């Protein structure tokens, strides 16, 4: 099976930000995306920047094709400045985290559409459990043959992205003990989770052919890896991050993902053999980051060396600083270091729960406030 990757001549950016809809009084999820679309889309200059998702309790805000992190953040902000007031009309707030702390999956409604119905029909209980939200970042890549090596090398930094964005510690009223319960929930779907590490594009094509022939997928987009090639866009799509609650952290994470892909691709194009790790190390790092967040001790190379993820992050940010200078996102990349100092979202949510004697409504309130504060 031939799959053509329509390369991007520039390292462009595209951001997809999934947000839950919560009731202003009860703070439970609301299955009212259709009503929100009806109010918000007529007010948007580009209604296509507000997307539906699997469940009616979710909306996705998407940017256009952007050249800088600042441009992408401005694009997203302009859409939210319309969607948030539309939600106000319906007593709905937008909520940016990886999971909701107390909502029940049993009362959530599926968005109409054959694609979603088939997903649930196949995955059943696990599919219906997917009360999860994330951030996806597309980075343009110019050459098809460099996509898979960059993807494999990018997995070395999976735990850094997971730990920084982790925002799903509480599930169905219970603290799971994990920084990111979302990461482990999502991988239960049959085509989700960590990608296979292929050296050549032809190996990816053979894999896809096997998936189609055996009925695992009908189309390429049904491969829901944490990092995957988006062939129609000419991008590498990073889907590692949990949902994000504020613009500062979103911009920081987008900058980090942008710089990582551009750095790896530039090095590969210059003839460097990119370092990778065996799949068992990558899998272990994913679990450690999901479990321990910013306190994770992660495996850093194929020689099985280990290091505290925040210590490794500090060196990574220093190494990427010249890349950020070239891409015009120096301030946003520098803001990554503020997340461990301030505490990641999972840590902030736990602190609110502790300070309020376990009041999970207060946890939702705190996440909602962060998003609204960023709108000014």
The CA-CA distance between the termini, in Å, is 50 Å
Strand content: 5-15%
Major pleated sheet: 7 strands, antiparallel
What is the N-to-C succession of helices and strands?
EHEEHEHEHHEEHEHEEEHHEEHHHHH
Rounded mean pLDDT is: 97
User: How many strand units?
Assistant: 13
How large is the count of helical segments?
14
Outline type:
globular
Helical fraction: 40-55%
Low-confidence runs (pLDDT<50, min 5 residues)?
Answer: none
Classification by helices and strands: alpha+beta
Radius of gyration from the alpha-carbon trace, in angstroms: 20 Å
Secondary structure elements and their pairing?
Layout: E1 13-23, H1 33-40, E2 50-52, E3 58-62, H2 69-89, E4 92-95, H3 114-128, E5 135-140, H4 144-154, H5 158-165, E6 170-171, E7 174-175, H6 181-186, E8 192-193, H7 201-213, E9 224-225, E10 227-230, E11 235-238, H8 247-269, H9 279-292, E12 297-299, E13 306-308, H10 309-327, H11 330-334, H12 338-342, H13 345-355, H14 360-375
Parallel strand pairs: 8-9
Antiparallel strand pairs: 1-3, 1-4, 1-5, 2-3, 5-11, 6-7, 10-11, 12-13
Helix pairs in contact: 1-2, 2-8, 4-8, 5-9, 8-10, 13-14
Keywords summarizing the entry:
two-stranded antiparallel ribbon; alpha+beta; 14 helices; 7-stranded antiparallel beta sheet; 47% helix; 14% strand; 376 residues
Characterise this structure.
- With 376 residues, this protein is α+β, with helices and mostly antiparallel strands.
- It has 14 helices and 13 strands.
- Strand 10 and strand 11 form a beta hairpin.
- The radius of gyration is 20 Å and the shape is globular.
- The model has no long low-confidence stretch (mean pLDDT 97).
């Amino acid at each position: 099976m031939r799959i053509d990757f329509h390369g991007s001549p520039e390292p462009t950016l595209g951001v997809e930000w999934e947000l839950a809809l919560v009731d202003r009084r009860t703070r439970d999820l609301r299955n009212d995306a259709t009503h929100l679309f009806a109010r918000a889309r007529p007010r948007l200059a580009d209604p296509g920047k507000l997307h539906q998702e699997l469940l009616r309790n979710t909306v996705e805000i998407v940017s256009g094709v952007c050249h800088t992190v600042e441009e992408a953040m401005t694009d997203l902000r302009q859409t939210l400045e319309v969607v948030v007031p539309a939600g106000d009309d319906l007593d709905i707030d937008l909520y940016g985290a990886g999971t909701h702390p107390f909502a029940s999956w049993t009362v959530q409604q599926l968005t109409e559409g054959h694609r979603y119905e088939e997903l649930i029909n196949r995955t059943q209980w696990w599919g219906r459990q997917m009360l999860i939200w994330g951030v996806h970042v597309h980075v343009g890549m110019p050459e098809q043959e460099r996509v898979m090596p960059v993807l494999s090398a990018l997995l070395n930094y999976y735990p850094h992205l997971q730990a920084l964005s982790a925002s799903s510690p509480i599930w169905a009223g219970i603290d799971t003990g994990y920084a990111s319960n979302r990461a482990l929930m999502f991988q239960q779907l049959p085509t989700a989770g960590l990608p296979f590490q292929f050296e050549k594009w032809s190996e990816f094509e053979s894999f896809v052919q096997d998936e189609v022939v055996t009925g695992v997928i009908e189309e390429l987009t049904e491969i829901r890896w944490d990092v995957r090639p988006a062939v129609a866009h000419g991008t590498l799509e990073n889907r590692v991050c949990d949902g994000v609650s504020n613009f500062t952290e979103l911009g920081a994470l987008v900058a980090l993902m942008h710089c990582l892909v551009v750095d790896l691709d530039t090095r590969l194009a210059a003839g460097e053999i990119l370092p990778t790790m065996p799949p068992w190390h990558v899998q272990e790092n994913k679990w450690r980051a999901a479990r321990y967040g910013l306190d994770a001790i992660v495996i850093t190379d194929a020689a099985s060396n280990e290091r505290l993820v925040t210590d490794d992050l500090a060196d990574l940010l220093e190494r990427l600083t010249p890349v950020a200078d070239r891409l015009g996102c120096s301030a946003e990349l520098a803001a990554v270091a503020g997340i461990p100092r301030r505490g990641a979202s999972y840590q902030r949510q736990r602190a609110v729960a502790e300070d309020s004697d376990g009041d999970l409504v207060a946890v939702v309130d705190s996440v909602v406030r962060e998003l609204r504060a960023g709108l000014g």
